[in-house]
Specification:
This protein is of the alpha/beta class and 334 residues long. Helix content is 39%, strand content 20%. This is MsnO8 family LLM class oxidoreductase.
């Protein structure tokens, strides 16, 4: 089965460099991805992490559409629970008017930051009025399509301008509930395999996606690194670890270090917490090794497109990796 390749970037800041340098690298990567034939280039949203410069993907999208010509640019994804669906619809309608047929709107439901950053983002939200993610997504969908019900309290509000071609819509998630919601709303589903690489979770989510009547095949996000030799790839990825933090209220989150875990717990006001050091789920090896794994995932789960992230620790090797993966892959023929 043929599949496309796309990229996700978090704009990681390497030791000793500034956010300016990290963002310039993001621009260069997007331009390289276009030259190499990648289908999409997405920007993540993270808050309060000193090592990541991507806090406002919609601003980076606007900048990158002016620095590229053909590749689709989008969010991977906007964290909808922090924002007004109306404002998100306006923003992406404007972007889609600036670059018709090139804008992707990816939506995620994670907090995307440390607890104090989340609190700051939601400072005007009254917890008593909090709405479910499903309700927010439905409202966003209505504003994007101009289909608010006549009895809706917001009926008559229009998210302008109306672009000639709307942003393509994606829901990012790693659970059957997210997969089902995407299918029911007619959004494309992106399984976040870099967060949950358990084959049983993948199978359960994609089965739920199909059973819910999905009209388009799913996308699959994952972490991958290709190098000239398997030994080089192993040397780059073997030392990588993630810290699984579990708070006393049962909340769990993956973080980059024990220090980040302690700070998250402090900001969350946890009386106690535990951590577990884990190896991240990363496809690595030569380009042929990685493509072989992608071929297998595509064949097993019907994946039409992979959205590839490179571990932040391997940022310096990322351009070489995406060049090797582009290679002569038949998936890039489209």
């Amino acid at each position: 089965m043929a599949y496309s390749l796309s990229l996700l970037d978090k704009s990681p800041i390497l030791d000793g460099e500034s956010a300016v340098e990290a963002l310039q690298r993001t621009i260069a990567l997007a331009q390289a991805a276009e030259r190499l034939g990648y289908r999409r280039f997405w920007l993540a949203e993270h808050h309060g992490f000193p090592g990541l410069a991507s806090s406002a993907p919609e601003i980076l999208v606007a900048h990158l559409i002016a620095r590229t010509r053909r590749i689709r640019i989008g969010s991977g994804g906007v964290l909808l629970q922090h924002y007004s669906p109306y404002k998100v619809a306006e923003t992406f309608n404007l972007l889609a008017a600036l670059a018709p047929d090139r804008i992707d709107l990816g939506i995620g439901k994670a907090p995307g930051g440390l607890p104090l950053s989340t609190r700051a983002l939601r400072v005007q939200h009254d917890p008593k009025d909090a709405r479910s993610f499903e309700a927010l997504l439905a409202e966003l969908d209505s504003f994007l399509s101009g289909s608010l019900a006549t009895d809706d309290p917001l009926a008559g509000a229009q998210a302008l301008p109306k672009p000639p071609a709307p942003a393509e819509r994606f829901l990012l998630g790693a659970s059957p509930d997210s997969a089902k919601l995407a299918a029911e709303r007619g959004w494309r589903f992106v399984f976040a395999g870099q967060l949950n690489g358990d084959p049983k979770a993948i199978e359960a989510s994609l089965d739920a996606h199909a059973r819910a009547g999905a009209r388009q095949p799913p996308l699959f996000g994952l972490a991958a690194l290709a190098a000239a030799t398997a030994e080089e790839a192993r040397a780059l990825t073997e030392p990588l670890r993630v810290v699984r933090l579990t708070l006393d209220n049962g909340q769990s989150v993956n973080l980059g270090s024990e220090e980040q875990a302690a700070e998250f717990a402090r900001q969350a006001g946890a009386a106690s917490y535990t951590t577990e050091i884990r190896r991240p789920s990363i496809l690595s090896g030569t380009a042929e090794d990685v493509r072989r794994e992608l071929d297998a995932l595509s064949a097993r789960f019907g994946i039409a497109e992979f959205v590839i992230d490179t571990p932040a620790a391997a940022t310096a090797q990322r351009l070489a990796s995406i060049t090797l993966l582009a290679g002569d892959a038949p998936a890039l023929a489209a």
